[in-house]
Write a structure and sequence with these properties.
Blueprint (H helix, E strand, L loop, with lengths): L2 E6 H4 L13 H6 L4 E6 L1 H4 L9 E5 L5 E5 L8 H13 L7 E3 L13 E2 L13 H9 L5 E3 L6 H21 L5 H10 L1 H7 L1 H12 L6 H17 L4 H13 L7 H15 L6 H13 L3 H4 L18
Parallel strand pairs: 1-2, 1-5, 3-6, 5-7
Antiparallel strand pairs: 3-4
Helix pairs in contact: 4-5, 6-10, 8-9, 8-11, 9-10, 11-12, 12-13
Bound molecules: iron/sulfur cluster.
Amino acid sequence: MAIPVGISACVLGQKVRFDGGHKQNRFVVDELSKHFEFKPVCPEVGIGMTIPRPAIRLLQLPNGDERLVDSKVHETDYTDKMKQFADKQLTNFDPLCGYVVCAKSPTCGMERVKLHIANGNTVPGGSVGIYTRELMARMPWLPVEEDGRLQDPVLRENFVFRVFSLNDFYQSLREMRSYDGFVKFHSRYKLVLMAHSPSAYKEMGRLVASIKEWDLDLFYIEYRQQFMDAIKNRASRSNKTNVLMHLQGYFKRSLTKTQKQELAELIMSYRNGNQPILAPLALINHYLKEYPDPYLQLQTFLNPYPEELKLRYGL
Ligand code: SF4
């Protein structure tokens, strides 16, 4: 089943921008569309603005408030309408597993959007588009990424991985919430958590150990937030090396001395930046077929998303 992901309509190629153009992203259209069911939204069209339309901007008032206004006529203010639209739109979007937003837009941008002041200058650091701010406030667990940042292999991998993981969480636990269900889900992600955040790995281990003290619905909310926060951290090469060495330990009785040495060398080669992670992982997956281990076979770290996305090639 395709994974539901929201998207700024112009990033999908719809001609909805203020100048009648689009900002189609090839990776989104050519690769992610095979796995994600994109739900395009243009919030500016959603509040009744025309195509084409006058440009709008974020304006900071002297009291610090940020407003979405016409670039030339600042009295024409779209902020409240946009917030109302976001409120209505996002209510229907609860099962989303991610969102791709358009960079720099005063409506959809996720970071460093130009924030103007009345004299025409801008505020250093910028701000967040009005719609995307509402989105992130309403669903703080949701993976949100900008189209431009998806060109970066590390950010791209992390975003796509988080979308697949949230979908897995929903598939595993949305309907059938049980203590056992959470323990099983958590067990599959142990190596992932170790790679993304050793401190969250420990913290979440304690959380899951205390599960019987929780109401399951409250646990669901707490676990989802902690889990999604943890995997938002970039999995560093040194953390991933530790995980690979941990995996290596599972084969210490089954492999010959030469095989052990070959695997150890491959892991070191990855650690030193001479091999992508796929090299040691391919060998580990090969040994896993030869010497099956039920715990390892279920580990998401080994197969986090479809290989055809080629997300780990350069990592
Ligand atoms: S950035 Fe957002 S508001 Fe602007 S055209 Fe794209 S979808 Fe519409």
